Amino acid sequence: MKVLIIGGDGYCGWATALYLSKQGHEVGILDSLVRRFWDLELGVETLTPIAPIQQRIKRWHELTGKTIPLYLGDITNYDFLISSLRQFQPDGIIHFGEQRSAPFSMIDRQHAVMTQINNVSGTLNILYAMKDEFPNCHLVKLGTMGEYGTPNIDIEEGYITIEHNGRKDTLPYPKQPGSMYHLSKVHDSHNIQFACRIWGLRATDLNQGVVYGVLTEETGMDELLINRLDYDGVFGTALNRFCIQAAIGHPLTVYGKGGQTRGFLDIRDTVRCIELAINYPAEAGEFRVFNQFTEQFSVGDLALMVQNAGNAIGLKVEIDHLDNPRIEKEEHYFNAKNTKLLDLGLVPHYLSDSLIDSLLNFAVKYQNRVNHGEILPKVTWKR
Ligand code: NAD
Ligand code: USQ
Questions:
Q1: For all residues of the chain together, what is the average pLDDT?
Q2: Which of 36, 103, 169, 264 would you label with 42, given CA atoms 20 to 30 Å apart?
Q3: Ligand 2: does its nearest atom lie under 6 Å from the Cβ of 254?
Q4: Kind of pairing, strands 252-255 and 92-95?
Q5: For the CA of 209, the nearest ligand
Q6: From atom 43 of ligand 1, which residue's Cα is the shortest distance away?
Q7: Which of 255, 276, 259 minimizes the C-alpha distance to 346?
Q8: Which CATH number fits domain 2-374: 3.40.50.720, 3.50.50.60, 3.40.50.970, 3.65.10.10?
Q9: Ligand 1 centre and the CA of 222: distance in Å?
Q10: CB 153 within 8 A of CB 174
Q11: Contact predicate 362/48, CB 8 Å
Q12: How many whole angstroms separate alpha carbon 380 and alpha carbon 383?
């Protein structure tokens, strides 16, 4: 299949592009490189030194003979988007190209507005491009488990059947997102669902949990193909941050009580889930939702797992409970369904098997690149 990866220079996108290319799909990458700019704006860097996108693609070609066309530009610019799509003629669009940090979206008004405009208008442009010229193309859109929030009932995959005053209907699952970023994903989901219902487009919304790990078979083939690994207080995510903190002897930064429970998955499962979504596309008019995670953990449990694994390889890992910079429940019920991708054939990697190889070893290898001033959180949800 011809698959255009929007956001293909990013963490999930780069790993996915190489994986799908290796599986024999014809892959193109579209990216504005704005994420590299946001790192510069914040004065932070990925732990792993990532090569410029042109060098990455060239190296992939040298190693595998496979060519990945590159479209450099911003999908909020419709003319750029439609001309890239006309050139590439995709069967599938995988859309990772958004501002994805909750803390970044909560810095101030400008960052909140920028996040929602970037994410919502980019996705809307894709929907209009599909409606006008690519009505059979399958959109695979990265959503987030955080769209659901932490309700006191089980979380279904996208829809819930409700009986009310003697009548019954299956409706989109209620959304209670926890940041301006997570809200942008809810807005996207509504827009995509509308486009499928009204224009007959086909789309899969992947409500992904927190991704961890840096190593995939393809990105591990050469230093120039290495993936990014963020550890700073804005773009770093919980488990990746804990491993890097363990490597440099910084106490693990559990926010508040640590009972916050989320869905997690290994980056090697992210790429496989995307493959399953494009190999088994949604029907015309279908807005399909998969919950994309493999295991649930509380952040407190994660910290204990990192502590045990770190101590086993000779690190001395301590755990700290910081005042929570976010407003979120710190003790709550969380039980989310995730059977649809498993039914399609996903065979998960489990954290207990991969914590050391996929993360701690990288953290130790690159520990000298860590800027210790960027570990503690600086953005707060509180006024
Ligand atoms: P990332 O920041 O590493 O990559 C996103 C890429 O999109 C960047 O290369 C950026 O330059 C590009 N981009 C952003 N806005 C763009 C625009 N308007 N036009 C063109 N390119 C643009 O993020 P990631 O961690 O790879 O996340 C990818 C997607 O997966 C996001 O939509 C995110 O919300 C979702 N997601 C990520 C995680 C996670 O733990 N990383 C978990 C759940 C969902
Ligand atoms: N947390 C800590 N300590 C830290 C960092 C985070 O305790 O040092 C806690 C947070 O308070 C939160 C949980 O860990 O309760 C998850 O935070 P996170 O920063 O790992 O993840 P989040 O902000 O939710 O965002 C990340 C990605 C986002 C994606 C989301 C999936 O950045 O793109 O949408 O994970 S989910 O969490 O399922 O919504």
A1: 97
A2: 264
A3: yes
A4: unpaired
A5: 2
A6: 208
A7: 276
A8: 3.40.50.720
A9: 23
A10: no
A11: yes
A12: 8
pLDDT in tens, 282-305: 999 999 999 999 999 999 999 999
Place of tokens 């970023």: 181
Q: What pLDDT digit, counting tens, does each position of 245-254 carry?
A: 999 999 999 9
Cα 319 from Cα 242, distance rounded (Å)? 9
173 contacts 158 by C-beta, under 8 angstroms: yes
Supply the pTM of this predicted model: 0.98
CA of 210 to the centre of ligand 2 (A): 6
305 CA from centroid of ligand 2 (Å): 17
Note the helical H segments in 96-167.
102-105, 109-116, 122-133
Closest approach atom of ligand 1 to CA 34: 11
Active site residues: 144, 181, 185
9 lines ligand 1 (CB under 6 A): yes
Tokens of 307: 């502590």
Distance, CA of 271 to CA of 22 (rounded, Å)? 11
Nearest C-alpha neighbor of 81 from the set 143, 151, 31:
31
Encoded tokens for 86: 């006309």
In this predicted structure, the answer to whether residue 331 has a pLDDT above a threshold of 80 is: yes
- Per residue in 36-84, pLDDT (tens digit) is 999 999 999 999 999 999 999 999 999 999 999 999 999 999 999 999 9
Q: Which residue has 């000779």 as its token pair? A: 314
